[in-house]
Write a structure and sequence with these properties.
The structure is a homodimer. By secondary structure, the first copy, chain A, is of the alpha/beta class. Helices cover 43% and strands 13% of the residues of chain A. Chain A has 14 helices and 14 strands. Chain A is globular. The interface between A and B is large, with 53 and 53 residues.
Amino acid sequence: MSNKLSNLSNKQLTELHQTFEAEFQKEKLARATRAEVSIDLTRGKPSAQQLDLSNNLLEAYSVKDLQEYQGMDPRNYGGLDGVPEAKSLFAPLLGANPSELIVFGNSSLELMYLCIHFYFQFGGQKVTPWSKEGSVKFICIAPGYDRHFQITEKFGFELVTVGFNQDGPDMDAIEALVASDKSIKGIWCVPKYSNPTGHVYSEEVIKRFAKLPRVACQNFKIFWDNAYAVHDFEDTSFEIPSLLTLCKQEGTQDSVIMFASTSKITFAGAGVCAVAASDTTRNELIAHLGALSIGPDKINQLRHVKFFGSYSSLQIHMRNHAKIIAHKFNLVLATLDEKLSDYDWAVWTKPRGGYFVSFDTKPGLAKKVVSLANELGLKLTPAGATFPYGKDPKDSNIRLAPSFATSEEIKPAIEKLALSVKLATLAQMIQ
Amino acid sequence: MSNKLSNLSNKQLTELHQTFEAEFQKEKLARATRAEVSIDLTRGKPSAQQLDLSNNLLEAYSVKDLQEYQGMDPRNYGGLDGVPEAKSLFAPLLGANPSELIVFGNSSLELMYLCIHFYFQFGGQKVTPWSKEGSVKFICIAPGYDRHFQITEKFGFELVTVGFNQDGPDMDAIEALVASDKSIKGIWCVPKYSNPTGHVYSEEVIKRFAKLPRVACQNFKIFWDNAYAVHDFEDTSFEIPSLLTLCKQEGTQDSVIMFASTSKITFAGAGVCAVAASDTTRNELIAHLGALSIGPDKINQLRHVKFFGSYSSLQIHMRNHAKIIAHKFNLVLATLDEKLSDYDWAVWTKPRGGYFVSFDTKPGLAKKVVSLANELGLKLTPAGATFPYGKDPKDSNIRLAPSFATSEEIKPAIEKLALSVKLATLAQMIQ
């Protein structure tokens, strides 16, 4: 247990403030003198070292492989739902049968956006277009993924914020909302290693999600973005229950779309993505996608199939990612402990996987801390980004994304953060 | 000059009908006996032989190339507008400066769809969303590309049909329409080797397109799909004037979006596409695309850059395509001449490039001919597909797409077509 800053006298606080102010100015000056480049902890991007793990992907699919391939010509148009071999490879990633998958292009975010657009504008076989039913609301579990929130904000939906419990989102609040308000058309979820809080939804929570469509409006959709399905730090990979499987038991399978991608498995910009959904939903999506797409890049799908060979090989590949990334997270957490555990400066998560540490300052300080850190050459995700409309009601959450920085940069980066937190906190207290 | 069927007596027509009816039944029976597979002339797909020309693309970009690359890491997220090297390579294809390009994913159709969606739903910096201005109309030059028409039909726009003159679309009609009706928000164009008529828009026509936005509504957009920019049959490649360049002279550059892709240059399903547009339009598109995309597959762009090396090498590559495809078109035209030039059974185009022969029966016969041909094992694009809503007012246009079939299939395919035409024509005349 750390000491409480509130137990310190004004004199003590003022002295501490002076100390850290001096340290801050010294560091700022030193940085200017050395003309240092900034350290960037803004986005959950794989590092070059991680990307190197997949370099052989570039040469994985040869002319010989093409000539020996028995399926439809992967070079030509068509195959809107992806090649069968890619469905088989990625089915375990989604916790679904190969036949339940659509394997698509290089961006699951693009598919999510298109699903929002399709259901808003056109609806589906059994689903009224959201746009035909007045105002549209969407539940955003926050802190959450800014790009999810931004899509629904772009479409003019009203974003309804719900918080977290220990074992996942506040299901009581979610159930009450969707039952009482039929203008709530959907919800964004990152069920494993939530961006940025690192939550892993419990089996109990996922079971409640499977029942949720029963009390929701008829065109309600759960956007289940399992972006970090195999992104565990420890050597024992574990799986959360498949929402689609649970939904089939509840008869709610038409209300869920599960997403995954290889963006943080192979190449962030040149991977493949997949969705798993019920027959009805898949047929709806294929019908809509058929209006715009000539089919995904099937060669890149086969390239991935050849590169991995099997799902177990993909899992081994993820262990190599873990070795690189877990080390950086350990450095983050060790430095936070070293620099910020003497007092109750802040609280932060200790994730077991994923790409983020969620860091909470005392209320009203996140923007100030991000600004101070920037003066010291540390780029952080803008404060508020993890909340709908980019507005954190408490102004306390900061998302730390240490994957892209080098190991050498992590400790100085977190020291800059800690110093900024201390200075901002004390400045607020002695005001 | 062929003889006129109308000069034949009823007796002569009836005798001819009996002859072709017998021939048709014999052919149908023979086909059933031999259990022949169908010949497919439905879609403008490159043949396997054409795709083979680009097989080295598969292995073109190596780990060594990656390691020597000086630009932003193409494996990671970002670079929404494409890699600079790809912009330089494809700029001549679009008749634009590299800086005017966005190079994107494997489907220009997808980009066209997204542009329609963006301008309908969100508008742009200086552009009111189409959806905010009541009903939306779109000009479709017909016969034209079914997938263009289907996109705008899906969005519920009213499709206004305009026909062709010798040197391109009927500009008098188009100018009168856009000047008098501000609900006309755009027009689909395939300016070179139009799908399916093979028209090449004249310089005069393109100049009139450049002036068109002056009399149109403020959020009018020309969708300029130069899909066959380098798809000439003869060895002397020629270029049409760049609409964007002409628009800049007229001050109308914000109203045009030009599209191209390598779908019929390298791999139909695994190529790259590009748009060229003004600064304003590009910024609008990038802002919208940024909500859904994590960037295009930059590796595949660099793979294309490496494979071609230069634009002149791409042009040489297209000569090799021409050798394969022009031979098939020659077979189509020779067989049509051989079988259908004795009387005025039909008229057809003699394209100098592109992927189609546009074939017109006498009015009211296209559906019947497609159906008869199908009985003989020849699959044709559904009659009407080349018109808005899939309805050819004259029921006479049939699109022939001979690229995908083998050379051996072409002559029998066209013989089946000719026989079906003769039978349908005579049946109609002796009714």
